[in-house]
Structure formats: structure tokens, C-alpha cells
Write a structure and sequence with these properties.
Layout lengths: L10 H18 L3 H5 L2 E8 L5 E3 H15 L4 E13 L2 E11 L5 E13 L2 E11 L5 H5 L7 E7 L4 E9 L5 E10 L2 E11 L6
Parallel strand pairs: 1-6
Antiparallel strand pairs: 1-2, 3-4, 4-5, 5-6, 7-8, 8-9, 9-10
Length: 201
């Protein structure tokens, strides 16, 4: 998760990261009271489906409902950036992953503003947003190295196989055209289309 030169870690950052770990522990114990206590009295919490809860009482209801729906699940908080805005406010961005009892995972992105109240850091604003859906092109990007011309030669048979890989228009498929030549004459030409199957993955 959080890679930064220890020398660069300010006490504010360290406090926020420590709170993330405590929040995960409270979530694992389904300790609603402890979870609500991470929020300031006038906090706002916006869930990834766009509902907003204002104040601790409403946030408590949301947390309770969430824990009931995800009974026995674990929460992991991955802070990607923690920026000190002022002596008493910090902006944190990252992602969360909830792992259910059956191993099913779901995630969200979050932005949190922490404020210092009575020497304790509290969440004043928490906004969750859905993870961006991976497009077929994102899935195929691990094959991007194939794009280009590839030639294989079999010396003994005077055979050459030329494969040309390119992105199809729209970028959701890779196409491969194959030309097989024997002694300089084309003996076979073919096409191959490589795509991402969302059902079979």
C-alpha cells in the first residue's frame, strides 16, 4: 500500500495511516461504536451509490446497515496519497477492498478529509466512488507487447511465418494476420481475432 520515504512521513500522515489500521480492526470486530467514533460530530459521508449521511447519528445507521449486509467480512484500506492541507486538516485518497466470508471481493475509491479535534484526528468528509470498470482494452493491455510484425523462419524447410498483430478499431480486440511462405511463395494466409470474454474471463 503506502510507499513513501520514512523521512517524508509527517506526523499527520502517520496518524491518518494509524487510524486506517484501527478502522480496519474495528470493522473486523463489527464494532459500530468504535467506527462511528472515527468521524467528527458534523461529518458527511457519501456512499459510492450517491447517498449522503450527515452527522454521527446518520453515519452510525449507515455503518450498522453496511456491517449487517457484509457480516463477517474484512475491510482493507489502501491509502494512496495523504496530503497535509494545513496544521489541522489532511486530505487522503485511496481505495478500499471488502472481502466477504466466501472470499468474494468488492472495492471502491475514497477521498477523506481528516480534521484535528481535541488532539485526535477525525474524518470530516468521506466520499466513496465506484471503481472504474475495466474495459476489454484494459484487459487485453497485457498483450500489448505483441503489437507489431513477427517473423519466424524454419531454415530447413525454407519456411517463413509472418504474423502482424494490431489493435482493431476501437481498441477492444487484437487482430493477427498470418502469412506462411514456403520458398518465397505464399502457402497460407489467415486471420485471428483475440478478445476478452467477460463471461469466461
Amino acid at each position: 500500500g503506502f510507499t513513501q520515504d520514512p523521512a517524508e512521513t509527517s506526523p499527520e500522515k502517520a496518524a491518518v495511516i494509524a487510524n486506517d489500521r484501527l478502522y480496519e480492526a474495528a470493522y473486523a470486530n463489527a464494532d459500530v461504536e468504535a467506527l462511528v467514533n472515527f468521524f467528527s460530530e458534523d461529518a458527511d459521508y457519501t456512499t459510492e451509490d450517491g447517498r449522503t449521511f450527515s452527522g454521527r447519528a446518520e453515519i452510525e445507521g449507515a455503518i450498522r446497515a453496511g456491517l449487517t449486509a457484509n457480516r463477517g467480512s474484512k475491510l482493507a484500506i489502501n491509502a494512496e496519497t495523504v496530503r497535509v492541507l494545513g496544521p489541522e486538516s489532511v486530505l487522503e485518497k485511496g481505495s478500499t477492498t471488502v472481502t466477504a466470508k466466501d472470499g468474494e471481493t468488492s472495492g471502491a475509491l475514497y477521498t477523506a478529509i481528516h480534521v484535528k479535534k481535541d488532539a485526535k484526528w477525525k474524518i470530516n468528509q468521506l466520499i466513496e466512488s465506484p471503481l472504474p470498470q475495466l474495459t476489454p482494452r484494459d484487459r487485453l493491455s497485457e498483450f500489448a507487447w505483441l503489437v507489431g510484425d513477427w517473423e519466424e523462419r524454419v531454415k530447413t524447410d525454407d519456411l517463413s511465418v509472418l504474423s502482424v498483430y494490431s489493435w482493431a478499431r476501437g481498441g477492444n480486440f487484437l487482430t493477427r494476420s498470418v502469412t506462411v511462405k514456403r520458398a518465397g511463395d505464399v502457402t497460407l494466409e489467415g486471420w485471428q481475432i483475440i478478445g476478452w470474454d467477460p463471461i469466461e474471463e
